[in-house]
Every structure is written in C-alpha cells, then in structure tokens.
Amino acid sequence: MTRLRDWLERHQISIYLLATFLAALTAYLTPATTSLDAAINPALALMLFVTFLRAPKAELGRAFTRVRFLELCSGRISWLEKLVTEPPNPFGRPAISKR
C-alpha cells in the first residue's frame, strides 16, 4: 500500500490531467448521452481519496468538532461569502456586516 500511495502522490498531477483529457474526449465522442452519469460520483470519490490519502486521521477527527468547519461543509457559508468577507480584513472580523 505504501508503494502505491507514494507512486500516486508522485504522479498525482499527471493522473488528474489524464483524467481530465479522457473526460473531455469521452464527452466529445458521446455528446448528449446520460449513460456515463453513474460513473461521475465514483470517479470523484476516487480522486478525493487519492488527494486526501495522506491527511492525518487525528486532525480529521478534531475537524468534526469545530462548528465553523461543519458549517462550511454543509454549505451554510458560501465560498463567495468567505472570499468577500475574510481576506480584506486581517483582524478576523467580517469586512461587511450581516443584518
């Protein structure tokens, strides 16, 4: 498993580029088809698994105890909102107040 993990980590960008190219080629060759819809979720799950394979399990457990992380995962905090309110203010208070 360690050899496979190391190999996947070394070739991660190449694998993603190849997967993107193959997906674009498949979409071009089979336009307006829904036969491959079932393959999307497993493919995304595999890519996420490879990406986060080296994530420390102890930190992952602690992340689920933090309310802010859970709000972000649940979609209650949008990425656009974080982009607009967080970076402009280094002091931790939102630059735009919510009412």
Description:
It is a single chain. The protein is mostly helical and 99 residues long. It has 2 domains: 1-54, no CATH class; 57-99, no CATH class. 62% of the residues lie in helices and 0% in strands. The protein is built from 6 helices and no strands. The longest helix is centred in the first third of the chain and has 18 residues, at 12-29. The radius of gyration is 19 Å and the shape is extended. It starts with a helix and ends in a 14-residue tail after the last helix. The mean pLDDT is 73.
Task: Spell out the blueprint of helices and strands.
Elements: H1 2-10, H2 12-29, H3 40-51, H4 57-63, H5 67-74, H6 79-85
Secondary-structure-derived class: mainly alpha
Instruction: Sum up the overall morphology in one term.
Output: extended
What is the rounded distance between the termini?
A: 51 Å
- Gyration radius from CA atoms, angstroms: 19 Å
H and E string: HHHHHH
Oligomer state equals single chain
How many beta-strand segments? 0
Strand content: under 5%
Helix count, per DSSP? Answer: 6
Mean pLDDT: 73
Number of domains: 2
* Biggest β-sheet strands, sense, barrel: none
Helix % is: 55-70%
Residue ranges: pLDDT <50 for 5 or more in a row? none
Transmembrane segments: 12-32, 38-56
Keywords: Membrane, Transmembrane, Transmembrane helix
Please tag this protein with its features.
single chain; 99 residues; mainly alpha; 0% strand; extended
